[in-house]
Amino acid sequence: AAWLNGLAEAGGEFRRHVLDSIREGALEEAERFLGAMEEAYYALMGFDYPGAIDRGLRGRCDALRGMLERTRGDLTNALRQARLEERLRQMEESAGE
């Protein structure tokens, strides 16, 4: 139970690393860590034990899901912005020729 709850709590560290990677412009790295965050969440969802045994794992999984969705949204916005910036740069280059 302690290990599973620790894995659920690690979601905050995954999110922090994804956000740091976005700030650094390392979007591929951010995607990898989002993938790891998703894998942890789906692994945890496979455990279905009473709260007395898992010590509140369900609540932590719910919190992890919320973090996962916010993180996915943040990364999606960053990816779309990067694509938009690249297209604008291409248009500027072609207009300058």
Summed over residues and divided by their number, the pLDDT gives a mean of: 90
Structural class: mainly alpha
Question: Portion of residues in helices?
Answer: over 70%
Our estimate of the beta-strand percent is: under 5%
**How many individual β-strands?**
0
Note the main sheet: none
Principal-axis shape:
rod-shaped
Q: What is the alpha-carbon Rg in Å? A: 18 Å
Elements, N to C (H/E): HHHHH
Low-confidence stretches: none
Measure the end-to-end span.
63 Å
Report the total helices: 5
In short:
The chain is mainly alpha-helical and 97 residues long. It contains five helices and no strands.
Structure overview:
The protein starts with a helix and ends with a helix. 15% of the residues are buried. Helices cover 88% and strands 0% of the residues. It has five helices and no strands. It is rod-shaped, with a radius of gyration of 18 Å. With 97 residues, it is an all-alpha fold.
Keywords:
97 residues; mainly alpha; 0% strand; rod-shaped
Secondary structure layout plus pairing:
Elements: H1 2-9, H2 11-24, H3 27-45, H4 51-54, H5 57-96
